[in-house]
Amino acid sequence: MVNASDLRVYVVNLRRRADRRARMTRVLPQALSATFTSDWEGPFDGRELSIETLSSAGYELFSWQIASDNPWYARALTSGEAGCALSHLWCWRDAAGRSEPYTVVFEDDIEFAPDFISRLLAALGGLQDGQADLIYLGRCRRAPDEPPSPDRNLPMGLVVPGFSYAAIGYLVTRAGLAALLAADLGRALLPVDEFLPTLYTSHPRADVRARFRHRVPALAFEPPLVWDVPDAEADSDTRRSGAISAVGRGGEAERADGDGACVEVRVAVVRHPGAGDEQGAVGK
Length: 284
Hints:
It is built from eight helices and 13 strands. The protein has helices at residues 18-27, 51-55, 79-96, 116-126, 174-182, 192-195, 206-211, 231-234, and strands at 7-12, 34-36, 61-62, 102-107, 110-112, 134-136, 140-141, 158-159, 164-165, 169-173, 218-221, 226-228, 269-270.
């Protein structure tokens, strides 16, 4: 039997977003006790990223921008995306030193299904060994899920996902956690919701496929257990942050007004073969 105490829970949250922390504290299911990344000293905030904070800590960027008709691929990685990826990475590293069999990561702009705990624990209790090491609690489908198969004998409410975006809420087993860390995301930072599907399926881009080859079995809740709050309420720091380029913080880069500062930094960029090869059209 799986209990809430078997879950190590994290919430990705910026220190300056105390409003979001307060909201998540209110809406988080009472059975869960969460660690907030805003309690850590880390390079998570796009406003604070610089060549010193990334390079001196040993982090490198994946060469994300390519010539493509897909606008998501044809633009540079943003400072908010880099900081968000590092927040998730630090959650995985912290969880690796803990003993709970499951790690759950939430972002701080989500809503929960009223029956979140009962559905989650029931599904985990019904899983067979090896059926899933990554489970999406909420996602954005970009490719069809696998058709249901009686041979799989999945617990009710779980499906085998096709290519999906969103890292708003997911669960990993100890084996899944090991796969996340073995992929060494810190040496090739890219949007975390582009990274997660590389664990279980083929990414549309050849350069991403070449860099991230680890595979784990994945499932997803359908209907989802969590979902994004409406855009008007979310006030996303990641979406409104500026591109990372060759100008460091405090230099010539233009800053946008408001929360989404246009912070551009000079960091090491990792290039991989096949950067121009796209498999299908998966857009955001």
